[in-house]
Design a protein that fits this description.
This protein has 160 residues and is mainly α. The protein has one domain. The chain is 44% helix and 9% strand. The protein has a three-stranded antiparallel β-sheet. The longest helix has 21 residues, at 80-100. The N and C termini lie close together (8 Å).
Length: 160
């Protein structure tokens, strides 16, 4: 299986920088990639994990358009335990980005979805990608409890 061709098909473009697949669906197709935190041009790239699965991208986009980010922000504001878990996920994300960068994080002031404030949820896709990549992100886990985790039609076979 050519992950490069599949990911380019999933995204409708080639991903930026050097990357590798970090999560797959049960059909064997990439669902999430990690990108090195510095591009070949030397430009810092804070998005460590990127969701590629077209099924998840569409489902999560629908949740976002229906006020999903705002609902998560409200839940986090009302639940200290959830807020604490999200802060921990943000710390883990930053540590993973530093590890991916060889020990130094080129964008240490931002975490998941490029946020300075880890409780200011602005992109559910980024939280799901972090969760799929192994970060204990309660927003990503919660989103995946609300939608089918993968497609039934193996749509990524079109890329082959």
């Amino acid at each position: 299986m050519d992950d490069g061709a599949i990911v380019a098909w999933q995204l409708g473009r080639h991903p930026r920088g050097r990357w590798r697949c970090v999560a797959r669906c049960s059909h064997g197709f990439p669902t999430c990639i990690t990108t090195e935190p510095v591009l070949e041009t030397g430009e810092p790239f804070p998005t460590l994990y990127y969701l590629t699965c077209p099924h998840l991208v569409a489902r999560i986009g629908a949740l976002e358009s229906q006020g999903g980010c705002e609902r998560w922000r409200e839940s986090i504001a009302a639940d200290d335990s959830l807020a604490s878990r999200l802060r921990d996920a943000d710390v883990s994300y930053r540590a993973a980005r530093a590890a991916e960068g060889g020990g130094a994080d080129p964008t240490p002031k931002v975490g998941i979805a490029g946020q300075r404030d880890p409780l200011a949820v602005k992109c559910l896709h980024a939280h799901v990608a972090a969760f799929l990549a192994g970060i204990d992100d309660p927003v990503g886990a919660g989103v995946l409890q609300r939608i089918p985790a993968e497609c039934a039609d193996r749509r990524c076979e079109e890329a082959l």
